[in-house]
Amino acid sequence: MRGTTQVEGTLGIIAGRGSLPSVIARAAMASEIPIHLVAIRGETSEEIECFPHTWIQWGEIGKLFSALKDNTCTDLVIIGGVNRPDFDNVRLDLGAIKTLPFLLSLAKGGDDHVLSSVVRFFEEKGYHVHGAGQVLPELLADEGKLSTKAPSAEDKADIATGLEVVRALGRHDIGQAVVVAKGRVLAVEAAEGTDAMLQRCAELRKSGRARGAHQTGVLVKAPKPGQEERIDMPTIGPETMRRAAAAGLAGVAVAAGQVLMAERGETIAAAKANKLFLVGERWDADVDDALGE
Amino acid sequence: MRGTTQVEGTLGIIAGRGSLPSVIARAAMASEIPIHLVAIRGETSEEIECFPHTWIQWGEIGKLFSALKDNTCTDLVIIGGVNRPDFDNVRLDLGAIKTLPFLLSLAKGGDDHVLSSVVRFFEEKGYHVHGAGQVLPELLADEGKLSTKAPSAEDKADIATGLEVVRALGRHDIGQAVVVAKGRVLAVEAAEGTDAMLQRCAELRKSGRARGAHQTGVLVKAPKPGQEERIDMPTIGPETMRRAAAAGLAGVAVAAGQVLMAERGETIAAAKANKLFLVGERWDADVDDALGE
After folding, report:
1. B291 and A171 in contact by Cβ < 8 A?
2. With CB atoms counted within 10 Å of each terminal CB, which end of chain A scores lower, N or C?
3. ipTM of the complex
C-alpha cells in the first residue's frame, strides 16, 4: 500500500505550518513532479514563495478550489499541521458558505476525526489525496539501524513497551509518540506535539523526577491505528534528534515505512552527532489486538 | 473496602513532599488519632515540625524503623510524593545495607511497580499500610455535585471519554488524569503530574492549538486500575481548581471515593470561585474490560 503513486498532471500541495511543505515541494521537483502549492496566510511559511503557489485566507474555500482547477491539480498532498481555525476570524468566501456544515463539523472530535473529514471532503469533490510518503517514498523512515549507535537490550525493552503504548493510545485517538525510560512511561503526547513532550522530559530529568543516567530511555513514534496517514503521518527531523538528546534519551525508534523523515540526511546526521540510536521498527498496521490480553 | 480502619496505638505517617502530610496529620489529630511523622530531609516540608516527628536522610532505613518502633507505630500511612532517590546521594545506614536489594529494585519499572514494592516492603516487616482515605474517609471526594455549577451534556460526554481513557492508560501504568475537550483528548498525564499537565493545556489554549470557547473541557482524575491506592491515591486540591480554570476548562470530575480531597473546604470554595463544576463520578474499580470491545 506504500508503493509509489503515479501523479497525473500537477501535484497540488495544500501547505500548512512548518518546513515540511517546502521540503516536500523540493523533493517533488527533484523527482520532476510538477507542483502547485496552496498556502494559508498566518499558517504557511513564506519560504514556499519560491515554488509555484497561491495564497488563501482561512475560509477562502472557493479560492482554494479555483487555484487547484486553474493548475490542473487532481492529485493532492496535504502537509504540515494547521491550527484549528478560530471561527471568529475566518473569512468565508462563497465556496466556504456552501461547505459550512462541513467546516462546522471540524470543530468537534479528535484529531483523527477532523483529518478524515478533510480527506473525505476533497475526495467527494473528485480529488485524489495521497500521503507525502506515497508520492515520495524516499521520505519514509526505513527498517533497521539508521544511526551509528545500536539500542541496548534495555533500550529494546523500552522500545517494545513504547510501541505497545502507542498502539493502546491510538484507540482513543491520542498521540503518536511516547517516551519510555527503564520500563516507565515518562510522557505521552496528546495535543502538544512531540517537541513539547520532549521538552517536558528534559525538565523532568533536570528536576530529578525522571530517574536514570543520562542517555536512558527512548522516544517511540508510530502512527495511531486507523490514523489518517495520508495527511497526518508522524514525522521526525533533526530537531527531534536534538530535543531527544536534550531530554537525556538514548535514542529514537519509529515505525518503519510509517514515519516521515523528510530531512533524511540532516536527521541521521543529528542522531549521530548527538550519539543517539535511530531505528526503524517493523510495524504491522493491521495488528489491532495489542489491548486484547 | 473503604470503610474506616481502626488504628491501634500510634499512626505512623511516612511523610513525602507537599502539604498533604500536614493536612493528614491535622485531620488525624482532629479525630484524636495519635500520630508520629517520619520526615525525609530534602523532601518533606518543615511545616510538619509542629507535629511529633523524626527527621531521616534518604537511605536511613535503620533510623526509620527505630523511629516507628520507639513510637509504637504498627499502622502506617505513606503520603506525599517523593522524588526517586538519586542513588549517588543516598546515605546508607546499616538498616539500608540490609535492604539493599530492595532499594535497588526501586530503580526500575513504572510508578505502580515501585509503590507496590514499598508497601510490600513494610508489610513484610509486620506493618499495616493504610490509605489516608481508609483511616480518614472524610478526606475522600464523594459522589455527585460538589460545586454549584453542574456539567452540561457536552461536559458529561467529555467526562465519559476521560474516564474511559484513564482506564485504558492504567493498564500501562500511566497517569491518573486526562483533559478532554469537545471529544478530543488534549493532554495525558504521565510523570509530570496534574499541575504541569494543566499548565500545558493553558498554553495550548493560549497558542490556539486547543479550540473551543473559554470554559470548555474537563479534567478527569481517577485511580489507575490496580493502582496501589494505599500510597498513591489521586489527589485534588484548591490549586487543581485554579489551574483547571486557568486552562479554560469547564470543570473537574473525579472517581468518587477514590480521590483524596484533603483540603475539602478550600477545594470546593476554589471550584465555586472559579465557576467550575466539580463532580464525583461513580467508579467501579473492578471493571477492567473497558478496552475489551
Report:
1. yes
2. C
3. 0.71
